[in-house]
Specification:
Blueprint (H helix, E strand, L loop, with lengths): L1 H54 L1 H45 L2 H35 L1
Length: about 140
């Protein structure tokens, strides 16, 4: 009986994998052309921008301005919000990973050694300044 239950579970898993595969194919049939058009449009903008960049700074700046305005109108305000959201998410992830990976005990020791060097150099400067002042007064 146990082996029969395992076979049914495997069939359900295969059925689920098969259904996911079928749905993925359907999605690519519907959305694939849109993805290809979007990528080719983006690629043509990159090629155009590289050629415009060789013309001069003013031409590149004007192309960048026109490109950004056209993209904003074609994607609407939702594209702007989506870009801001994605940027915030990426920034949060990067800063979180940096914070987690940092060895804070090591950073504290580095800061202490820098403070000690700074205090010693400021004391040496103060001693040199006092020595120079006493030397000038004796003349």
């Amino acid at each position: 009986m146990e082996s029969g239950g395992m076979e049914e579970g495997e069939e359900e898993t295969r059925g689920l994998a098969g259904r996911v595969g079928e749905e993925t194919k359907k999605l690519w049939r519907v959305g694939g052309p849109a993805v290809i058009i979007r990528l080719s449009t983006f690629g043509s903008f990159i090629v155009t921008q590289s050629f415009v960049g060789r013309c001069g700074e003013l031409e590149l700046a004007s192309y960048g301005l026109v490109f950004s305005i056209l993209i904003r109108f074609s994607h609407g305000i939702m594209g702007l919000w989506l870009g801001m959201l994605c940027g915030s998410v990426v920034q949060t992830l990067v800063l979180t990973s940096i914070t987690i990976r940092t060895n804070w005990d090591n950073q504290v020791e580095k800061a202490k050694s820098r403070l000690r060097r700074w205090e010693l150099s400021s004391q040496d400067d103060a001693n040199n300044a006092n020595g120079e002042t006493s030397g000038r007064d004796s003349r």
